Amino acid sequence: MYLKTTALALVAGLFASAANAQFAVEASAGYAFDDAVYWDSYDYSVAGDLNLAFAAYYTAIPGWEIGVDLSGTKQKYVDDTDHQSNTSLMLNVRKTFAVDDKLTAYVGAGLGKVQAEYEYDGGSDKDSVGGGMLSAGVRYNLGKGDVFSEVKYIRGFDDADLYESDVTVRATSVNVGYRFNF
């Protein structure tokens, strides 16, 4: 009897939380400030560049969000015309903390895939590896949406195989964006 009552309470709780569920879509841009790319354990200097990100999140349990994040960064090698791009697709979980009625802070972690692409004169080379993402940010509610700022760290769990070399895949960025709440 206790097990049936507990199961019924859990199901009722899930349906109640689904009625209060919230969806959100985010778009942001920022600066990727890594200063080196590691090729076969050798550091090559790169100039920071633009990071673009799009995400969608779902909140069924207050204080927790689950979603997907698509992020891309392109970095130019210093004193060269070559570029390295990193594109990631991550499944994320965030823990949110209401600071007051307008301000919310959050931390997040995710798992997914990172694709690295090396572009050079005459061609390009790509490789995808499993990876992870850590993030922290704050958002300010404007009514129907929020403005936010976020720090992201994305890293491949393995080195990418680019141009017959092992390349560490990582990107650190600070982004500012807008969150559409539905």
Layout: helices, strands, pairs:
Layout: H1 2-19, E1 22-32, E2 36-39, E3 42-47, E4 49-59, E5 64-77, E6 83-98, E7 103-120, E8 123-141, E9 145-156, E10 160-162, E11 165-167, E12 170-181
Antiparallel strand pairs: 1-4, 1-12, 2-3, 3-5, 4-5, 5-6, 6-7, 7-8, 8-9, 9-12, 10-11
Describe this structure as you would to a colleague.
- With 182 residues, this protein is mostly beta strands.
- Strand 2 and strand 3 form a beta hairpin.
- Mean pLDDT is 86; it is low at 6-18.
- The protein is elongated.
- It has 1 helix and 12 strands, in the order H-E-E-E-E-E-E-E-E-E-E-E-E.
- The strands form 2 sheets. An 8-stranded antiparallel barrel has the order 1-4-5-6-7-8-9-12. Strands 10-11 form a two-stranded antiparallel sheet.
Query: Main beta sheet: strand number and arrangement?
Result: 8 strands, antiparallel, barrel
Low-confidence stretches: 6-18
Largest beta sheet: strand ordering: 1-4-5-6-7-8-9-12
pLDDT averaged residue by residue: 86
* SS strand fraction: over 45%
**Helical content class:** under 10%
| Rg from alpha-carbon coordinates | 20 Å
**In total, how many beta strands?**
12
SS field, number of helical segments: 1
Notable characteristics:
182 residues; mainly beta; eight-stranded antiparallel beta barrel; two-stranded antiparallel ribbon; 1 helix
Describe the structure concisely for a colleague.
The protein has 182 residues and is mainly beta. The protein contains 1 helix and 12 strands, in the order αββββββββββββ.
